[in-house]
Design brief:
Layout: E1 12-16, H1 21-36, H2 40-53, E2 57-59, E3 62-63, E4 66-69, E5 76-86, E6 96-105, H3 110-124, H4 126-133, H5 138-146, H6 148-153
Parallel strand pairs: 1-5, 3-6, 4-6
Antiparallel strand pairs: 2-3, 5-6
Length: 154
Amino acid sequence: MEINDLISSGQVVANLHATSKKQVLQELSRRTADITGLHERAIFDTLMERERLGTTGVGNGIAIPHGKLPDIDRLYGLFARLEQPVDFQAIDERPVDLIFLLLAPESAGADHLKALAKVSRLLRDGATCEKLRGTDTGEALYAILTGSVEHEAA
């Protein structure tokens, strides 16, 4: 599984404006509803339910909100870089500015975990996060996330 299996260039938001964790999740739910065809409230409720179990703010300014929904047939992702970091109750108590949302079918099982692991490995790389924070276009963010920059340089 590769990142481009989870997102397309249209599923990358370069400068998302939000001032709170709730507002971030609402905006991501709205945008993901357009992609999946699901109702944004169902997505938002699923994400909030997961946040109640424990924060998806994994540290170093990164959050990976995720959840499973019955009415989708594949994994969906959405990446957003926030205009300004917001408090996400992250484990290191630092505000979050890079967010990779993942939605999976309820039956996804191992695929959901593999996708979370893939995204986590990608965003644990300090150089990648520095590049993500240093660009301001969706196309450039997508290229960094999918490794297109390295492929073009090779």
